């Protein structure tokens, strides 16, 4: 089966920190562009000029760039404040990693609030946060070593080299692993030996194991394709005007969805095939979680409301479901079912927390 995920996703995902994939804190409904235009400064992030600039909100609390840098400096990369004064530091603010940090930081603050409501503070979570960092670094190091091996440049590892790579990993990925750690604290692993619980989940969600969904999408870009920062001013206004025109042109029964996708979708590779996205798994790391979650929640032929991902605004039409293979419930599959149960519960919690605590991105 061919996968038509297009450059909007594959090219961007390859340059996006791993922890940002599938964990975007975008609201399900696009924000009011007029309100955003009244509050967003009309310039890109710069340090230290924008230290007090609001980059996100959690409820009524504004999160500033300065608070984000302080958080990174205190918890993940001592020296981040000094790094921001250099050309290398300024480069971070001009790359997609800055937008990923904003999303992850807003999520972390919301999850910390949820943890506090359950009587859990940062000290209580330290062990789980450390375990998340260790697991993520070991996975990254394994993949990095394999990639070097394939290029004929095997990685020579000694303790000094490992320490250096870990420091770099914490700088770039530490915030994402902290997000995963908080999710692990609030939704711990499912016991793979809890046969009754696993069997019930498997019975309730058989499509998750061996099934894929095909869909069509219309994509409207409202973020800079290079930095992934939110558009402002005239560019933002034009994006929402385009979205309004698309919605006006769509037939109520979705019969012309593919035609409109060909004409208007800004993911031009998928647009050429009427917006086709095939082979979408329920938890598909090639795609934003909001897209997989939405597509799988629809009935065949149903069209979604506009929703946001870290890349832009999407409208999707579910085309159909296909079961590729059948999984027999036995001891070999129990660990996979347990991991899927935890992942679903963590995703449900994250989307719920974003809504309840009012996560809003301003960058």
Describe this structure in words.
By secondary structure, the chain is of the alpha+beta class. It folds into 2 domains: 6-192 and 347-361, no CATH class; 203-323, Chitinase A, domain 3 (Roll). It is built from 14 helices and 7 strands. The chain has helices at 6-14, 33-39, 65-75, 80-83, 87-93, 96-117, 122-150, 159-186, 195-204, 233-249, 257-264, 268-271, 289-297, 331-356; strands at 54-58, 61-64, 211-220, 276-280, 307-308, 313-323, 359-361. A 4-stranded antiparallel β-sheet has the order 4-3-6-5. Strands 2-1-7 form a 3-stranded antiparallel β-sheet. Strand 1 and strand 2 form a beta hairpin. The longest helix has 29 residues, at 122-150.
Main structural class: alpha+beta
Residue share in helix: 40-55%
Count of β-strands: 7
| Gross morphology | globular
Number of domains: 2
CA distance, first residue to last residue: 37 Å
Average predicted local confidence, pLDDT: 89
Put simply, the count of helices is: 14
The helix/strand series, from N terminus to C terminus, equals HHEEHHHHHHHEHHHEHEEHE
Indicate the proportion of strand residues: 5-15%
If strands are numbered along the chain, what order do they take across the biggest sheet?
4-3-6-5
Oligomeric status:
single chain
- List low-pLDDT spans: 1-42
Mind telling me the C-alpha Rg? 21 Å
Report the sheet with the most strands, covering strand number, pairing sense and barrel closure.
4 strands, antiparallel
């Amino acid at each position: 089966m061919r996968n038509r995920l297009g450059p909007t996703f594959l090219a961007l995902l390859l340059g996006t920190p791993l922890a940002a994939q599938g964990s975007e804190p975008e609201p399900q409904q696009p924000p009011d562009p007029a309100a955003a235009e009244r509050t967003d400064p009309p310039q890109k992030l710069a340090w230290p000029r924008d230290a007090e600039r609001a980059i996100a909100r959690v409820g009524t609390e504004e999160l500033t760039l300065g608070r984000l840098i302080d958080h990174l400096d205190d918890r993940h990369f001592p020296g981040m404040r000094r790094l921001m004064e250099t050309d290398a530091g300024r480069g971070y603010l001009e790359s997609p990693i800055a937008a990923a940090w904003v999303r992850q930081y807003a999520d972390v603050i919301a999850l910390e609030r949820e943890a506090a409501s359950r009587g859990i503070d940062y000290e209580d979570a330290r062990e789980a946060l450390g375990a998340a960092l260790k697991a993520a670094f070991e996975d990254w190091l394994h993949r990095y070593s394999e990639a070097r091996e394939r290029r004929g440049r095997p990685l020579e590892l000694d303790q000094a080299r490992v320490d250096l790579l870990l420091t770099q990993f914490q700088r770039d990925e530490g915030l994402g692993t902290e997000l995963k750690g908080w999710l692990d604290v609030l939704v711990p692993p499912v016991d793979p030996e809890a046969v009754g619980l696993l069997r019930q989940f498997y019975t309730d969600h058989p499509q998750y194991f061996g099934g894929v969904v095909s869909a069509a999408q219309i994509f409207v870009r409202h973020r800079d394709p290079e930095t992934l920062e939110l558009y402002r001013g005239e560019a933002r206004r034009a994006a929402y005007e385009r979205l309004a025109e698309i919605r006006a042109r769509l037939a109520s029964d979705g019969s012309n969805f593919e035609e409109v996708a060909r004409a208007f979708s800004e993911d031009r590779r998928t647009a050429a095939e009427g917006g086709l996205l095939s082979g979408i798994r329920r938890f598909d790391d090639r795609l934003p979680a909001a897209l997989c979650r939405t597509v799988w929640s629809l009935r065949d032929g149903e069209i979604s409301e506009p929703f946001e991902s870290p890349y832009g605004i999407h409208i999707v039409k579910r085309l159909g479901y296909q079961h590729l293979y059948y999984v027999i419930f036995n001891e070999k599959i129990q660990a996979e079912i347990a991991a899927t149960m935890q992942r679903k519960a963590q995703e449900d919690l994250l989307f719920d927390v974003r809504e309840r605590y009012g996560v809003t991105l301003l960058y």
